[in-house]
Amino acid sequence: MDIPFVSLKPLEKELDVDIREAFTRVYERSWYIEGSEDAKFEKEFSKYCNTDYCVGTGNGLDSLLLALKALEISEGDEVIVPSNTYIATALAATYAGAKIVLVEPDIRTFNIDPNKIEERITKKTKAIMPVHLYGQPCEMDPIMQIAEKYDLHVIEDCAQAHGAIYKNKKVGSFGTVGGFSFYPGKNLGALGDAGAATTNNKFLADKIRALGNYGSDYKYHHIYKGNNSRLDELQAAFLLAKLPHLDKVNEERRRIASLYMNGIKNLGVVLPYVIEDVESVWHVFSIRCKDRDTLEVHLNNLGISTNKHYPTPIHLQECYKEMKLGNGSLPIAEEISDTQLSLPLYYGMTDNQIQYVIDCINKFK
Ligand SMILES: *Cc1c(COP(=O)(O)O)cnc(C)c1O
Fold it and tell me: Is 238 exposed, middle or buried (0-12, 13-18, 19+ CB in 10 A)?
């Protein structure tokens, strides 16, 4: 049986009429940038996240970068970033001009370990960037307490966690700003690049919007040296068609994850650990195995596509070699890179496919 790592088709088939209608609506209006679709999506998405404001951006990386810029975090500042995340989180801080300070994760949850943050705070620290990795919220209570104690901003990277909940509160509503990506494969995905920043601070919302629009507060009037990163009308219209289905999609992802959790019984495989009082949205179903590479070949040979999130940790990437953090310097991130494997999980996966993945893992010796 051939099982892709992800397929967007089942949801697209279900929403086919709505998506084509969204395209036609925008095309007939011939208005593609800064229009009513973007405004409406921002309103709907801020309502969904329970924040006062949402600002559409060109992609997820820019939502984080513009947030840091709006907070005037730049050269000479330090930003705390998890050592186990997609590189975009780190690059946002680097592009802003700040120095990244990598903090190790809790190996059970893969998320930043709140107990290891405080020891890395200095006089230069300006912000913490928790990443709700693989769809599971970080431990936001201790993180917010540390931020309050040291007067730090919290910029949540929510790119993998649309709709995830920590103690009855949606991610993206805890920090100063939440950054979202709508890359097609994310839980809420556009049909191209798109992103958004959520916040309860009007000044920051206006500033993020201006910074992503040439630093302009009104036409041909420039108060910042901004760049160009806006959510275009077509992507906003597609997102408006898909947003009403996000909860159903996340619910289905949770169902598949619980079948994996209950079905996978192999002593060589460590299942993901979900903390109390959260609802993960399972962007990735992440297992660990000492023999990861052999397990990967075993599954691939049986037709099951897998992935690694991520095969090389940030500090060992060539582009960050100036940090001079060699092998062994962040052992938990390295251990995850060496042992982590992501299983297929997407809306529309059939029960037969799910059972096949479970059986193939349980057969692995
Ligand atoms: C996808 C992703 C991003 C970046 O989003 P883009 O829309 O691709 O720019 C940032 N952080 C994390 C954790 C991601 O998974």
Answer: buried
Binding-site residues, ligand 1, Cβ < 6 A: 59-61, 85-86, 88-89, 131, 157, 159-160, 181, 183, 193, 195
How many residues does the structure list for the chain?
365
pLDDT tens digits, one per residue of 300-342: 999 999 999 999 999 999 999 999 999 999 999 999 999 999 9
Residue 213: CB atoms within 10 Å: 20
Mutation test residue for ligand 1: of 63, 68, 183, the one with most atoms within 8 Å of CB? 183
* Tokens 């559409």, located at residue: 56
Dmax (CA) for the chain in angstroms is 66
Q: What is the per-residue pLDDT across 205-218, written as a single tens digit (0 to 9) for each?
A: 999 999 999 999 99
Ligand 1 centroid–CA 355 distance in Å is: 30
Provide CB contacts within 8 A for 4, sequence distance 6+.
Answer: 305, 344, 346
